[in-house]
Amino acid sequence: MNFEELNLAPAIVKAVLEQGYETPTAIQAQAIPAVLEGHDLLGGAQTGTGKTAAFVLPMLHKLSAGEAPKNKFGGVGIRALVLTPTRELAAQVEESVQTYGKYLELSSTVVFGGVGMNPQISRVKKGVDILVATPGRLLDLLQQGVLDLGQVQILVLDEADRMLDMGFIHDVKKVLAVVPKDKQSLLFSATFSDEIRDLAATLLKNPLSIQVTPRNTTVQRITQVIHPVGRGKKKALLAHIIQEH
What we know:
alpha/beta, 12% strand, seven-stranded parallel sheet, 245 residues, Rossmann fold
């Protein structure tokens, strides 16, 4: 299978091919058709599997085919919301949106904590089609009344297990309470703990489940090595390993 066979808009395929990608990864080949068909999705995929493109590409396709509503401030209404656990991941996801959507007339921005809020307020009030955010800063903007999530059509929870590990579950539930109920929801997680499954049960409607890695395993690209060593020699061993790498 190649990207031309996934029924994505030609402008999206062009952008993908320009990045040197020809063959979809396993998660992309399974998730993209499911998202295009409108299914909610529970995706099991680790970092490094092409997970981001698995939801960004069909999201761009669906938004490019629809009309943009207005938010309560008169700007473009947010139609897709992507929640991520860290500012680094949020920035990476928004960069992917920009890269793959470069030939589309869609706007996007990213909001996260640790930086000034005023430029973010101006951007979201003006309106964007796609918003990528960390839960804490998103709630800050919501509480200030400068953010309108009433037009969200697609919601993505990326690396949901990390969000729960970092204590964001209550923030996530607050966000879920203010987005439309009749949206398409996609949840991606490297592991499927009981907490993740409980969250999926409250968020997803008759979801398709796609898992491309063994359950609860470490990232396959990481080589794990055990060095049995006495307590007194641990520092010397660590120093040797660091020097070797």
